[in-house]
Amino acid sequence: MVGLRAPLSSEVEETLDPKDWEDVRALSHLLVNESIDYLRDIRQRPVWQEMPAGVKGAFGGSLPRSPTPLVDVYRQVTENLMPYPMGNIHPRFWSWFMGSSNFTGALADFLAAVLGSNLGGGNHAAALMDNQVVNWCKEMIGFPSSASGTLVSGGSMANLIAHVIARNVNAGVDVREDGVGAIKKPLRFYASDQVHSCHRKAVEALGLGNKALRRITTDAELRIDVGALRAAIAQDRNAGFEPACVIATAGTVNTGAIDDLEALANLAAEESLWFHVDGCIGALLAIAPANAYRVRGIERAQSVALDPHKWLHAPFEVGCILIRDASAHRGAFTVTQEYLESTPRGLASAAWLHEYGLQTTRGFRALKVWMSLQEHGVEKFGRLIDQNIAQARYLTTLIDQQPFLELVAPTSINIVCFRYRSPGLEDGARKALNIEIMLQLQEKGIAALSDTTVHGEHCLRVAITNHRTQREDLDMLVAEMLRLGASLKP
Q1: Which of 36, 205, 265, 342 ranks highest by number of CB atoms within 10 Å?
Q2: Domains in the chain, ordered, with CATH?
Q3: CB within 8 Å of 225: residues ≥ 6 apart
Q4: pLDDT at res. 7
Q5: What is the value of pTM for the model shown?
Q6: Peptide bond before residue 50 is cis, with ω within 30 degrees of 0
Q7: Longest CA pairwise span in the chain (Å)
């Protein structure tokens, strides 16, 4: 054939496929078996442990130039990685707000990697599954089927996408074409003083600046003060600003407080503002039988951010943003390139999923959510959410019964803010004592807590987002805190 030549005999064509598939099969069986043991025996291991110097040094090696047998590569993983996790799958990990994964989701991530699909879009089964999981998320929170949405890396990206759309809708100009410099009146976004830091990053990334995000004071329950919000909107209008978006928080990071979503929906409608709900902690309360009432009104939002890698326990990472106005969503991101033109048939005959966000290359995040929901059913995940909230109430009761422990904030859902109290200690000494208790709990592998400051009061924080946690774990926490506090206090 013209233009083709036979390969030279000296040329060796290579591949990453193994030379012996049976060796890989044997190692793969070993890997799966040891992974099952790893999860089965999780209570026998510390929640977290410091890495020895030798292990840390192993991660400072130079770039490998020549091959290493796969069995030896796996040995390095089992020796230097698996014993030193962050710990969030352990039943006594309560630092921050993280899901605890599940084995089916892990298998799904393996299958997704084997398939190797790019979920930028196209006419293939994984893209249909991606859309199906988004549709399930709509159904879980009561959004209409006509709404839009996309799977993303997590809450920060989900909130950013919502703010892009809110900015574009309320700018009064074509921001995509002319840029933020063409906006005649500076835009204002509103949230409580408990709002997640990703919202600041979002308005900064949008070119609006940190001052565009007004933090509104909160009430005794740490919810946004609706009266103060109304006054701030009026003040900004009079000062020549353009109020654009109300950000409600369905579960603050500090305490789990949930803003009055119905009142905020009403206010946003009255003021013609975009109503966004950051539900990365609490949106999925909507599927919890005993606690769904707490997020009543979320279905009225223009946009909702939620995280299946939290209370749906999908392995990291998978977040979701839902947008009521599908045309506004696609209009904020679509770009038609000649190399991505649709065709009447074939691989390019379906919608491009990348037209709903910032990533052209998208991983197959949907499979781990899809498989877990199929296996367990959404009702079980709702019961697990109720279980975690009941466990937080139980811990709150234990704290109330102990004279040397005290709550620092009301327990709203599954986050408990409290501290060891030692009468006579000044604030600085009390803070140092509580931090030392927290660090010793971590270093001894007993439990992982975090600390925070709520309205000027330092405290320890337990966020129960774990399907493996049991009440006996909370009993152990209280007993160990009392023991450490008694041994450490001056």
Answers
A1: 265
A2: 21-85 (1.20.1340), 108-335+342-378 (3.40.640.10), 381-488 (3.90.1150.170)
A3: 192, 216, 217, 218, 219
A4: 57
A5: 0.94
A6: no
A7: 92
